[in-house]
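Sample intake sheet
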Amino acid sequence: MKKLCLLVCMSLGLSATAIAEGDAEAGKAKSAVCAACHGPDGNSMIDMNPKLAGQHEKYIVKQLTEFKLASQTGGEEGRNNAVMNGMAAPLSEQDMKDLAAYFSSQEPKAGETPEQYVEAGRALYQGGDEPRGVTACIACHGPKGNGMGLAGFPDISGQHATYTASQLKAFRSGQRHNDMNGMMRDIAMKLTDEDIEILSNYIAGLH
């Protein structure tokens, strides 16, 4: 009987660990080191660094996990970034979940789309470019850019245009290769510099 009780307790303990979720309050305390680049509430003031406020928890955990993987494999696997690799290297799985819970709970600050990008941006974002085989962004990221958390598609609404453009170019060159099934690489390879400029500025104003 004692052995049975022990097994049950161990099983319950393992189950609790397996389904442990992020703690936003713990994440707030751990996020102090992130603030210099991403802002204390995840609303980065530096346009080359992404806004994290309101981002899907699952997506944040995925990126941190892959930054850590890149740090362990010399950039051969995961998502390679000289700064983020070092930041993610010491994080535990629970640290990542806590940070994700905190940043996802923060209110994102809306950006703006310069007037000259509105019409062309809307056409490309919502309709893509069938002759060139460019898939419409709305298919995965939604009409307001909020993405789909369960599917792993990030919220890109209100993101800094400079950051979005840099990531589209990284996907296009293959420098960034942690997208599901190469979806973003396939799309970005068909985008011109002008397309990227238009899309990144249009996305900045989505909310």
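Comment: The chain is about 55% helix and 0% strand. Residues 2-18 form the longest helix (17 residues).
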